[in-house]
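Quick board copy: two proteins, each given as sequence then tokens.
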Amino acid sequence: MKKLILSALFLSFLSATEMQANTTKAGTGSWIGSQDKVAVRPDDLPEAVKNTLSGDAYAGWQVTSAFLVTKEDNSQYFEINAKKGEESTVINLDKYGKKVD
């Protein structure tokens, strides 16, 4: 009986993992074609972006990673991943530190 329960649990875990892998692959393919992302060290962000991130609006948020995103029309913005405790967010700012939608 114990082996049967463990086998069922293993198969359900395996199928859930397979579904997650397929979902991620499908979503990634369509996104990459429309823009280009280059990793940027948080220390290398423009001063205007750093000033915005150190302001009251983002108090307590810690930058975990940053990317320079170039869209098809050659416009650029910084995609900044930040974390505050267990909460995480993505902040999009142009080179002047202004929020981009």
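And the next:
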Amino acid sequence: MWNTVKAYALLWNAKKRKGIIKVVLEDGSDHKIVVKSASELNTLGNILRHEQPVHYNKHNGSLASAWELIKDEVIK
């Protein structure tokens, strides 16, 4: 079941070398996503920062952006 992410927070613990992303969903529930590298935290953080809307699947812990249309461009 996919729900729209309304808010998020990122945490990186340098000593333990792991991170947590906390997402708050449109239904008011919150969920934690554990990440194992700074690179993974950065990648997921970029999705949350730059894509709108972002959805979270409560059952499998996935994040997804919305569909985007591909525009036809004229090449000159």
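Board note added afterward: Residues 2-65 form one domain.
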